[in-house]
Write a structure and sequence with these properties.
heterotrimer, A alpha+beta (173), B alpha/beta (948), C mainly alpha (462), B: 28 helices, C: 462 residues, 71% helix
Chain lengths: 173, 948, 462
């Protein structure tokens, strides 16, 4: 298969090229940009994520655990009369689970993020591609796979250049 | 720049360099280590309770013995654990104790273990032995024999001990030319002379305060510290019982130059120059005779005198007039006459202290010194070099003496200028006997073998007499042989057991006072200095007792020193304020003093207390306060008119424990004062008759048989501080030292708050222990559950769980919790209080707290648990009165009651139903278990505008 | 560089104009301005930095000495006494944790409010948060009587068979701080990943490339990465707001959950949160001014930033003033004697002069921000921000001293006098904070490059 990597200077150009590629029937593999480009993910058909669900679950689980600890220690394991307060002073017991729950949500979210993005991955073949380092600074890269062979890569490259690509080069997939 | 270091460092250093003192200290440490092993004295002493077969470890034994207070006996029950006396409590059978104590009795155990006590004889060439002294003495006494003791002089404080008197008597027979000089810095010469004037012989008046309905005190501080304090306090409280009824309820008038403890408890108090007080007496006398008084008085005083006189007259038979030790003999004589006219309830007894005038003794002594008639001088537990008037010229006289020996607990100022210093055994270490102020005799039995190589006064006197190895035990028994009769031993056991010897009280004699004419005083021009014994260290003999030094003075709450109190009026004229250092000049002597300005003092009168500015008291007492003895004259020991004050520009901070004194507006609810009338009418509004505050919390139910509670009757509290020191002794409460007090850090678990009303008059005294709130604010805020409630309603502090967040104290409305900012009892002790002997005093049932933990009043939980153990052994519940907290036991006026709320018959339940009952800060909903009864006052309705 | 010309944004929209000056209006310019101090230190003169480093280092040593003496001799070396059991320790804690709030507020609350200008300041504001919060965490431990047992606040199986006492506000505190601190670290780091990637790709020499490479976790800026990244970042922001609010409410409860006059007030939690934002914003302004000057970021941190932050502080100062007024009114209206006499004590008591200084710093001085000229003068805003920080510290210490010194029972009313050890620890902690911040700016991009780039283009698209 043939994978082309086109370099743009403006996010708008990138988007234009991506749409044209799709209309032409070729496949947009991915885009590498210095900041999130609106619409790109949707165009790539990024599925709605379970990330928030994971965060919610993680937070709630730890918070419940904390409440359980409090209840067990204050009611069952070590019931003491503290200033005539009821053993189960639940309003006072809420803050510890709340704080630790939010922290737990953050951590589970981070783990989920890593899972979804496949990071950490310190090496990647793309890093070898000349000029790829600009993707994190000021250039907007579009990776497409040429599907329609009758016209060959030249046609796709042509299309990209017309969309405003500084350069288009073929990379090993 | 830490707060405590300088003094502590100093102490630390002084133990490092090995001078003689340090050597002795080390010696002491060595001995102290063996304290646990050193047990009861060899002779049989009889326990107060039935003694177990043998001493059971951990079970304290109680013995009746007697402690001396300025020479008079004060019966106590000493508590001893594994042979170590750790606490004293009152002996109900003894008339000078009545089961209660005073600060000096409570603190005596600390003196016993004082590391600064001298531990071995010291001769002209340094540390010596008793044998060496024996030899030296013998050769000296040989000479004396040849001249019938013409050069022999004994100097001592007041001696009431029959055995000692017998021994001295024997000596004086043996050496007819010898002389015995007896003097007390706090002398009663005026009272004595007054009696001689009135009756022709030195009778001692004993007012029956309990029967009185009106008392006029003319500068007489009968509730202040002294041998009578406990008895007078008890009688005073009993005469002011709420249920006494308006007719019988004692009304107290006090006229004095400086507010005293008695004045603080008065219904009508008058500040007046001491010289003018006689004019009040004259006015009263005249009124009683129905004559017109011609004694000029300031209008306020005239009003006071008239009202008092009328009141006395109307209550004749139940009215007493008393004169103070500072007042001249004529006034005392006049008071005898007045009391006679009033048929006052006053007993007259033959003097318990047989020796003559203190002043005369001092004169004779001075005379002997200057004419160098003294060859052999023995100073028996007296400290003339410090506390005798300067005109005696000791400094000059002493070096010339051929042979001088000093017997005392400390190597003090006098010891320093004597050839020999002989260590005296502590009262708890020796056999002896003493008489109380009313003559009641009792035996002093030792609780412990002498810790060091010390001797009792009996032994030293016997040495003088030529005995070789005298034994106090035998000497004391000898004295009482005749009285004991044939079955002496059982009599002896009984006497030891009871702590008093029956029928030894001096019988009251009847005598008619002759009327003597005395002239009224003209109002004086010069300022006068008024001296008084110190409420904490008396005449200075207790200066090295850290508990007493740190015990806040009842009215000013000063610690670790004395101040010169100046009336606010004079302060304005002199432009001096509290804390200013001034020079006090009298004749050619001047002293630097710190000023304390007070509203409760007569203009033109300055006042301060004796006993401070010690130079060789020890690590604790040295350098605290200033010494006023140099200003004193032999014949004018109390009032020095013609003193002048000059400012130095220097200032000094005064270590006081109480922040503010004034109660105004709504804060008077903290310590309400109610008159009998108001009480009869019924008390309305806060803080009275307030039910429990509403709460969202469900009541804490438990089936525990106990719910401990304390009720403190502020009407009975006279502010004597006995409870405070008792608590310190019982609960191993550490001393923090003056530097820490200056930083507003204190450790006393129980404090006695003193408040003044808007006019500056005393509102009352309020002992404040932990309130043991049912809804304790300190508990829910503790993150580690170190402050929790137990099933019996105690608010307990778990020391080893505490991490020192101090949230509890910051949230305690009463601020009764105490924090160990440093290791006050944990290797950072003040001065020498970390040395081993001190640890021997610690109560083994109470944890010694470490650095960084919070502590507080526990309701003496160790006593509760002992009572519970005993009860459970007999599987019953604890009975009413079985648990007596340390403060309760000490209180002379029974102001503190403690008991079990779940016991319907408990006294506390009755008290909590009284009309005067109220909760301190009850409106906060803390539901305190410690509650109060309002202070009762009984002002004269015909007095006009209230003065007090 | 030719690329500069190429990716200049042709039509800079007015909105962006305010937040980024023309000289910074290109991705490359942003990258260069921010990364130069990190990647080409030799092109930089570090004189001022070294001086600051030396001074703050010395102060850090002072803090260590002070803390060591505290641990050796005991907490008694402080000025606290039997009545005023709390002092500088708690005041410093409350003050630092307040400063520790602003970073998260800026990066989360402003994010949710779509305040794009935050992009230029949120990075070092978050760094400030981390350092301030960790310093804050030290004080409650140092102030303990037995600091080595602070971990007894955690529920763990122990030989004493004991548990923490969950009703105590200190427990809430402990967990709030801990959660907040760790949360902020995660938040901060995630925000840094794309910038680390940029640095990785710009680094010429080997070591920085390796280090930043590792920290970037292999970030490739792929559309999928950005997709999940944004989702997570927004979710975190949404969580951060309630967390930070609860944190300072809990600090307020340390006092409000009590029986003491002047403390037991329901207004405390919100009033503490506002106070926290207030002092935090003031500290951000101070740091912004310094970073801007030190790293010549005038192009990215513009006068408009100071203008808008000044407005925020002005608002906060008014709210603070209202809170104080409410306290006084409640005391009078409630009619409780203790409360009333406390307020009297605030105005007439021994601490009154400090109280008036505090009112000037927190309420009066910031009113100058009504004048646009003042708001747009970086120096003026800087000075007033410093004044506000002083004022807020005074407020913290007075909250403690007034109430504790003027306790219910007159007999126990005592004043507080700080010792040298109180002061050295306070100023030492300031030095330590500066010390850590100086190290931070040498190692981590102090402005979020990817977010600034983003607003440039977002502006362009609008």
């Amino acid at each position: 298969m043939i994978v082309l990597l086109a370099e743009f200077t403006r996010p708008e150009a990138l988007m234009r090229a991506a749409r044209q590629t799709q209309n032409a029937g070729d496949k947009v593999l991915d885009a590498f940009t210095p900041f999130p480009v609106a619409g790109m993910a949707e165009l790539l058909g990024a599925r709605s994520t379970r990330l928030r669900a994971v965060m919610f679950a993680g937070g709630i689980a730890i918070a419940l655990g904390a409440i359980g600890t409090e209840y067990f220690s204050a009611m069952l394991d070590y019931p003491i009369n503290s200033g005539g307060r009821p053993l189960n002073s639940w309003p006072a017991f809420m803050l510890f689970p709340f704080a630790i729950g939010i922290f737990a949500a953050a951590v589970s979210g981070f783990i989920a993020l890593m899972a979804e993005t496949g990071l950490p991955r310190l090496h990647h073949p793309l890093f070898a591609v000349e000029g790829f380092e600009r993707a994190s600074q000021s250039r907007f890269l579009l990776a497409i796979e040429v599907v329609r062979f009758e016209k060959g890569p030249a046609d796709a490259e042509e299309r990209l250049r017309n969309a405003g690509a500084l350069s288009v080069r073929e990379v090993e997939a | 720049m830490s707060s405590v270091t300088p003094k502590q460092k100093a102490a630390a250093l002084s133990t490092v360099e090995l001078d003689r003192r340090a050597a002795l200290k080390l010696l002491a440490s060595g001995m102290a280590l063996s304290l646990a092993s050193c047990g009861k004295p060899p002779e049989e002493i009889v326990p107060y309770v039935d003694q177990p077969e043998r001493l059971v470890p951990g079970i304290p034994l109680k013995f009746a013995t007697t402690l001396d207070m300025a020479g008079y006996g004060r019966g106590v029950i000493a508590i001893s654990v594994e042979g170590r006396p750790i606490k004293v409590e009152g002996n109900p059978r003894h008339p000078a104790s009545l089961g209660a104590t005073d600060v000096f009795a409570e603190a005596s155990v600390l003196t016993l273990y004082d590391p600064d006590r001298s531990k071995a004889p010291r001769g002209p060439k340094g540390i010596a032995s008793w044998d060496a002294f024996g030899d030296a003495l013998r050769t000296q006494m040989e000479k004396e024999k040849t001249r019938a003791g013409a050069g022999l002089r004994l100097v001592s404080g007041r001696i009431t001990s029959p055995t000692l008197l017998r021994q001295i008597d024997g000596l004086l027979k043996q050496f007819p030319q010898a002389r015995w000089y007896r003097y007390e810095p706090v002398s009663d010469d005026n009272e004595r002379d007054g009696a001689i004037m009135a009756f022709g012989r030195p009778l001692t008046p004993l007012p029956r305060i309990g029967e009185a309905a009106v008392i006029l005190s003319l500068n007489a501080d009968f509730l202040g510290s002294g041998p009578h304090q406990i008895a007078n306090g008890r009688a005073f409280a009993s005469a002011r019982k709420a249920d006494a009824g308006a007719e019988q309820f004692l009304r107290l008038y006090v006229a004095e130059p400086v507010l005293s403890l008695t004045g603080a408890n008065a219904d009508h108090w008058l500040a007046i120059r001491p010289e003018l007080i006689r004019n009040i007496a004259l006015t009263v006398a005249a009124t009683l005779r129905g004559e017109k008084a011609n004694a000029p008085l300031p209008p306020e005083a005239e009003h006071f005198a008239a009202a008092a006189a009328a009141d006395l007259k109307s209550k004749a038979g139940k009215a007493i007039v008393m004169a103070g030790r500072a007042q001249p003999a004529e006034l005392h004589a006049l008071c005898h006459t007045i009391n006679n006219m009033l048929h006052a309830p006053v007993d007259l007894i033959e003097p318990v202290d047989p020796a003559g005038k203190h002043g005369e003794a001092l004169h004779a002594f001075a005379d002997d010194l200057s004419n160098s008639r003294i060859e052999t001088l023995l100073i028996l537990d007296a400290n003339p070099a410090y506390d005798a008037p300067r005109e005696l010229g000791f400094k000059a006289g002493f070096p010339k003496l051929p042979f001088s020996a000093h017997l005392g607990l400390y190597d003090d100022e006098t010891a320093a200028i004597c050839h020999w210093h002989l260590p005296l055994s502590h009262t708890l270490e020796s056999w002896s006997d003493l008489r109380a102020f009313d003559g009641t005799a009792s035996i002093v039995q030792p609780l412990i073998r002498p810790l060091y190589d010390t001797r009792s006064m009996h032994q030293v006197l016997a040495l003088l007499g030529g005995a070789l190895s005298p034994v106090s035990y035998d000497l004391v028994r000898e004295t009482w042989q005749p009285r004991g009769g044939d079955d002496f031993d059982s009599w002896w056991r009984q006497v030891l057991h009871d702590g008093v010897i029956a029928q030894t009280r001096h019988a009251a004699v009847s005598a008619q006072p002759r009327t003597i004419a005395i002239k009224p005083a003209a109002s004086p021009a010069e300022s006068v200095l008024v001296l008084a014994p110190d409420p904490s260290i008396w005449d200075g003999r207790h200066a090295n007792n850290a508990w007493l030094q740190e015990c806040p003075k009842p009215l000013s709450k000063e610690t670790w020193g004395n101040t010169l109190s100046v009336s606010s009026r004079d302060a304005q004229q002199l432009r001096c304020a509290t804390g200013d250092v001034i020079t006090l000049k009298y004749k050619d002597v001047s002293v630097e003093a710190v000023v304390r300005v007070t509203a409760n003092q007569a203009g033109g009168a300055y006042a301060t207390t004796l006993g401070y500015g010690r130079r060789k008291a020890g690590a604790i007492g040295d350098g605290a306060g200033f010494d006023v003895y140099p200003l004193r004259g032999i014949d004018e020991p109390w009032l020095m008119s013609g003193v002048t004050i000059a400012k130095t520009g220097k200032t000094r901070d005064i270590p006081t424990t109480q922040g503010q004194f004034r109660l105004e507006g709504e804060t008077t609810q903290f310590l309400p004062r109610v008159s009998l009338a108001a009480l009869a009418a019924g008390l309305k509004g806060p803080p009275f008759e307030e039910g429990p505050k509403p709460t969202l919390y469900p009541p804490v139910q438990n089936d525990d048989p106990y719910a401990w509670a304390m009720v403190i009757d502020t009407a009975a509290c006279i502010g004597c501080n006995a409870c405070l020191v008792a608590c310190q002794a019982e609960n191993n409460v550490p001393v923090v030292g003056p530097d820490q007090i200056l930083r507003s850090r204190v450790m006393h678990w129980l404090r006695v708050d003193t408040y003044t009303d808007a006019n500056g008059g005393i509102q009352g005294f309020q002992p404040v222990p932990c309130m043991h709130c049912e809804h304790a604010p300190c508990e829910p805020v503790c993150p580690v559950a170190a402050s929790v409630h137990d099933r019996e309603g105690l608010n307990v502090q778990v020391y080893n769980r505490c991490i020192g967040t101090r949230f509890c104290q910051s949230n305690c409305p009463y601020k009764v919790r105490r924090f160990n900012w440093f290791g006050y009892a944990d290797d950072e002790e003040y001065a020498n209080l970390g040395e081993p002997p001190i640890k021997a005093q610690h109560n083994p049932d109470v944890t010694v707290r470490g650095r960084g933990v919070m502590e507080k009043c526990t309701y003496c939980v160790q006593r509760i648990s002992r009572a519970r153990r005993n009860a459970e052994k007999e599987n019953r519940t604890i009975k009413e009165g079985e648990v007596v907290t340390a403060c309760q036991a000490a209180c002379p006026t029974r102001a503190i009651s403690f008991g079990n709320l779940k016991d319907a018959r408990a006294h506390v339940n009755a008290l909590r139903k009284e009309k005067r009952h109220y909760e301190l800060l009850g409106h906060l909903g803390t539901r305190p278990r410690t509650t109060y009864l309002a202070r009762l006052i009984n002002p004269n309705p015909d007095f006009g505008e209230a003065k007090s | 560089m030719s690329s500069l010309a190429l990716n200049r944004i042709d039509t800079p929209p007015a909105d962006t104009e305010r937040w980024v000056l023309p000289s910074g209006q290109s991705d490359e310019a942003v990258n260069r301005i921010v990364s130069a101090p990190l990647l080409q230190p030799h092109k930089w003169t570090w004189r001022a930095w070294w001086i600051a480093f030396a001074v703050s280092g010395a102060m850090t040593v002072m803090m260590i000495v002070s803390a060591s003496w505290l641990l050796i001799r005991g907490v008694g070396v402080w000025g606290n006494n039997t009545t005023v059991v709390w002092g500088f320790g708690i005041a410093n804690y409350v003050w630092w944790i307040g400063i520790g709030n602003a970073g998260t507020l800026i990066s989360s609350m402003l994010l949710l409010m779509r305040q794009h200008w935050r992009a230029s300041i949120n990075r070092f504001a978050e760094a400030m948060t981390l350092f301030a919060a960790s310093i804050a965490g030290l004080f409650p431990i140092l102030h303990l009587g037995r600091p080595l047992y602070f971990y007894w606040l955690t529920p763990y199986p122990n030989t004493m068979l004991l548990w923490p006492q969950w009703r105590s506000a200190l427990i809430w505190d402990f967990w709030a701080i801990l959660s907040y601190l760790l949360f902020s670290i995660v938040f901060w780091y995630v925000g840094l990943i794309p910038d680390f990637a940029t640095l990785r790709d710009r680094a010429r020499s080997n070591l920085p490339r390796k280090v930043y490479g590792a920290l970037a976790l292999g970030w490739r800026g792929s559309a999928r990465h950005w997709h999940f990244y944004e989702i997570y970042h927004k979710a975190m922001a949404a969580l951060a707001v309630p967390l930070v609010v609860s944190l300072h409410s809990v600090v307020g409860l340390d006092f409000a959950a009590s029986l003491m006059p002047g403390w037991a007030e329901t207004i405390f939690p919100p009033y503490f949160v506002v106070g926290a934002m207030y002092s935090g914003f003031a500290m951000v302004v101070v740091l912004a001014a310094l970073v801007r000057w030190g790293f010549r970021m005038q192009a990215i941190i513009t006068v408009s930033h100071f203008d808008v932050m000044a407005k925020v502080m002005l608002m906060a100062s008014i709210v603070m003033g209202l809170s104080y007024a409410t306290e006084w009114f409640d005391a009078w209206y409630g009619g409780d004697h203790a409360e009333r006499s406390l307020v009297t004590f605030m105005f007439t008591g021994s601490y009154a002069p400090i109280y008036f200084v505090m009112l000037f710093c927190n309420v009066l001085a910031p009113q100058a921000f009504w004048l646009p000229a003042v708001r747009r003068s970086v120096f003026a805003v800087f000075v007033i921000a410093v004044i506000i920080n002083v004022g807020m510290w005074l407020e913290r210490i007075l909250i403690i001293l007034n109430t504790l010194s003027h306790t219910h029972l007159p007999s126990m009313r005592h004043l507080f006098f700080p010792t040298i050890w109180d002061w050295t620890l306070l100023f030492g902690s300031l030095g330590f904070f500066t010390f850590m911040f100086l190290i931070f700016v040498r190692l981590v991009p102090s402005v979020s490059m990817h977010e600034v780039r983003h607003i440039l283009h977002e502006g362009a698209q609008r």
